[in-house]
Specification:
Helicase, Ruva Protein, domain 3, 12 helices, 41% helix, alpha/beta, seven-stranded mixed sheet, 292 residues, 9 strands, 18% strand
Length: 292
């Protein structure tokens, strides 16, 4: 009898016992944040909040809840990220829907949001922001949530990603200040902007398959693969950003480890002046800032 079949024939368990069992299974599957993720899966299976889970730990799981939890845990043990199992991810303390067409937002990308806000200074400025490779729209929408007079346009080559970003904008109450369009970087954009932001694919092609299973198997390849040297997207988008920024405009780019010098050169060749490098929580240069 398989482990799954065994779990389904066991006697009902309490919420607290289920949490312990799930945490153990996830840890054995190599999941680093096993306890925290176990709680998220139990919450999803039971429909209870974190406070309710803590307060009613001795409540018994119903049959349907146990079966739902088993299904969720089995998926996570196959290394499917919790965000994709639940269809949502928190970013900048905001909820974002995540779909197969979008990159799973990472905490490291919040570095770009904070760097742009610090560089802008005046949060009441009436800015126009362009987000290239928008995915879920998390970068643009996080900025708009902090800049009440700003407006933005997000561009993505995947129609499904654009639809996801539009849904996220509506859910966050930002749809009146955010437009999302299908496009090849900024090629078909004719407007001018004060800020251009991007988290482009920057993983070297040969390295994609060696990424964590949660990334390599479940993030869209087009959002990861940056070509043989990881810089293909920068070569395309940086000159386009230069054409669409107003004089003195700001460009903020997320980069991978070891790419700062190369991206600096590409930006300088396009007429940009470097104005800042911001490190992520691990101390890795993660965001480069430039002025036109």
């Amino acid at each position: 009898m398989s482990a799954t079949e065994t779990s389904r024939t066991e006697a009902p368990v309490t919420v607290a016992a289920a949490l312990r069992r799930v945490s153990t299974r996830l840890a054995l599957a190599g999941i680093e944040r096993a306890q925290a993720e176990a709680r998220l899966l139990v919450e999803a299976a039971t429909g209870a909040s974190r406070a309710e889970i803590i307060g009613f730990g001795e409540r018994m799981l119903g049959t349907a809840q146990s079966e739902s939890l088993e299904h969720l845990v089995a998926r996570r043990c196959l290394r499917e990220p919790v965000s994709r199992i639940l269809g949502k991810r928190e970013f900048w303390s905001l909820p974002f829907a995540v779909t197969p067409a979008t990159l799973d937002p990472r905490p490291d990308s919040e570095t770009l949001v904070s760097a742009v806000l610090q560089e802008i200074g005046d949060r009441q400025a009436a800015l126009e922001i362009l987000d290239l490779g928008t995915g879920t729209g998390c970068l643009l929408l996080a900025l708009l949530s902090e800049l009440p007079r700003a407006r933005g346009t997000g561009v993505d080559v995947a129609p499904e990603a654009v639809a996801t970003a539009q849904g996220n904008a509506a859910a966050l109450g930002l749809a009146d200040r955010a437009a999302f369009v299908v496009g090849d970087w900024a090629r078909d954009i004719n407007a001018r902007f004060h800020v251009v932001i991007s988290n482009p694919p920057y993983i070297e092609s040969a390295a994609v398959s060696g990424l964590q299973p949660e990334v390599a198997r479940f993030d869209p390849a087009a959002a990861l693969d940056g070509g043989p040297d990881g810089l293909a997207a920068y070569r395309l988008l940086i000159p386009q950003a230069a054409e669409r920024l107003v004089p003195g405009g700001l460009m903020a780019l997320e980069i991978g480890a070891g790419q700062a010098e190369s991206v600096d050169r590409l930006a300088a060749d396009a007429g940009f002046t470097a104005v800042g490098t911001v490190h992520d929580l691990a101390g890795i240069p993660r965001c480069l800032l430039f002025r036109k």
